[in-house]
User: Fold ABC-type nitrate/sulfonate/bicarbonate transport system, ATPase component from Ruminiclostridium cellobioparum subsp. termitidis CT1112.
Amino acid sequence: MKDFIIMDRVFFSYGKREILSNVCLTLEAGGSYALIGKSGSGKSTILNLIAGFLKPDGGTVTVNGAEVRAPRSETAFLFQDLGLFPWQTVEDAVSMPLKIKGRTDSLEAAVMELLVEMRLEGHKDKYPQELSGGERQRVALARTLIGEPDLLLMDEPTSALDAMTKEELQGIIIREQQKRTATLLFVTHDIEEAVMLGQHILLMNGDGTVSQMDNPYYSVKNAREELGFYDQCIKLRKLLKMEM
Assistant:
């Protein structure tokens, strides 16, 4: 697999507080990576550095061979607050990234195809306030995917959802990431979600560095029905406590 994201000796501080210390990280193209750790450990900082929203104090961040100096058009970011505008219908929200880029050829067909995949075709003329939490999350995900990005960054993609809706959305995320072979990096506080969605799990250490472990239960059908899945969750929980 091709090295796609490289963080090389990256340092970052907020004021006098060092958040990231000499982070060296290599993520392969097409992989799915869960980033977990305690609050304030630097998870969202890593996302924002890779997205180009922040610049490191030291070291370099490269994506697909180019140093990240600003946001790149091939990177899509699903924010925790979703960022849906109350005056936009579902169809307007999903089509917005293509309109901004001036890509209007076959726009309506592309949007409708994605709405069907997300089971939102019956809601295309509705506004965010008329949708359930899970529906709003699927709209935001569709808007993230419409531009066919090669990199998907997600910050707590299911944190506001109930258990059943969360599992449904997790299945959609796996399906869409594998279908598109995009690289996925997402932040989560949910250990089960990390084991469900992360082919590789990145653990924020207490010293501002990152450790990586492979996950044998990534994309396993009915993984939550296997005892080994919960053994993996327990193992991860213990590692997290060691870093608290």
Notes: The chain has two domains: 1-74+151-244, 80-148. The chain has a mean pLDDT of 88.
